[in-house]
Amino acid sequence: NTEITAELIAAGKVAHELDREHVFHSWQAQGPFDPMTIIKTEGSWVWDGEGNKLLDLSSQLVNTNIGHQHPKVVAAIQAQAATICTIAPQHVNDARSEAAKLIAELTPGNLNKIFFTNGGADANEHAIRMARVHTGKHKVLAAYRSYHGGTHLAVNVTGDPRRVASDNATDGVVHFFPAYLYRSYFNSTTEAEETQRALRHLEDTIILEGPSSIGALVLESIPGSAGIYVPPTGYMEGVRELTSKYGIILIADEVMAGFGRAGQWFAVNHWNITPDLLTFAKGVNSGYVPLGGVAISEEIFETFLQRPYPGGLTYSGHPLACAAAVATIKAMQEERMVENSARLGAEIIGPALTELKAKHPSVGDVRGTGCFWAVELVTNQETREPMAPYGGSSPAMAAVTGALKKAGMLPFVNFNRIHVVPPLNISDADLRTGLAMLDEALSVADGFVTD
Ligand code: PLP
């Protein structure tokens, strides 16, 4: 329990200066970027460089599902560090074995084998490679308005402007339009229409690209940073049917939606479907030590019984990361965090956001499940004109972000959306405080509404 002292604040200022001198930050123009210093974290709260206490409704890129500095996980990392800090992937390590067992038990169906990576992007890279080797087919289908990671192939399957900006080599990737009712690509006005039309579009894409050339379809079970647009009823079941029908490996990217975030251990549980490969990271150990992985079906595993898998990572199944995963999963089970995530979504966040939508003309749409929600801001509810373009920013969104911080929140703002993604074990009182801060900031957004 670090005290906020003048020394701690002074150390934060030194760190900020050194950062500006020497740290190269992700996704930023380095010149104007002024990162926030964090000098302390605890539970659902962080303290900025001035010592101000902020409610962390971002969960640090939707990552700290168990909140900051969970004592059981901190203790497990310390205990692991005191025995074995690192062991190469070809050796057995008890933390890795136990983490793999727990994850295999939690993932649906016959996803019983776990390949560990360092994070989400490399999990997707490896899942696609497994699918390509298993099927002998190269093409990969992926959705527009998606995010799958910042490395070469992961950013290529990503369907947002970050792909266009950072890479232009397609490497066999073909994009299709997802089911997204609020901004339907198919002019749908009902969920049923959207499901039917989006699936027809997907089947047409498969047929026209040639099923004999498509190895995998990678899809976020609930697209996260692209907008937390929960698929309409029947869509994911339909995707599972189409991929099975055409011999395409279905890779469910659960890097953000998994590990209780969406009110179930995995978002695919909402539809009772089992993908052939499921990728995870973030919530597996709340990011206390970097870890990701691929859960692999028995069928795909069999391909590699006699044939070597052509890939690996020095830190695959790192003991510190796996010890953190074991402790995280056990804490989530003991403290019933997944059930709590579902309850918070159904009883507090959902009803509160519905009220905010009725009250604020700047709110175009609210949607989500569990502790995974988006508030989509518009300048006009009729035309649904976004308050910032997809992939961009605007003075209006900058003002809203400023208002959220001023109200006392560390928010997750993406383009024209505010994401409400608290830790799954946030207290009801803290969550209500955060929603009141949101209400306050939305009045600023209302000022940018046009007729
Ligand atoms: N997939 C999804 C759905 C994500 O949200 C992210 C990160 O936000 C990634 C993959 C990439 O994960 P990482 O940043 O750990 O490489």
TrEMBL record:
The keyword Transferase applies. Keywords: Aminotransferase, Pyridoxal phosphate, Transferase. The keyword Transferase applies. Pfam families: Aminotran_3. Coiled coil: none annotated. GO terms for cellular component: cytosol. Gene3D superfamilies: Aspartate Aminotransferase, domain 1, Type I PLP-dependent aspartate aminotransferase-like (Major domain). GO terms for molecular function: pyridoxal phosphate binding; transaminase activity. InterPro entries: Aminotrans_3, Aminotrans_3_PPA_site, PyrdxlP-dep_Trfase, PyrdxlP-dep_Trfase_major, PyrdxlP-dep_Trfase_small. Belongs to the class-III pyridoxal-phosphate-dependent aminotransferase family. This is Class III aminotransferase.
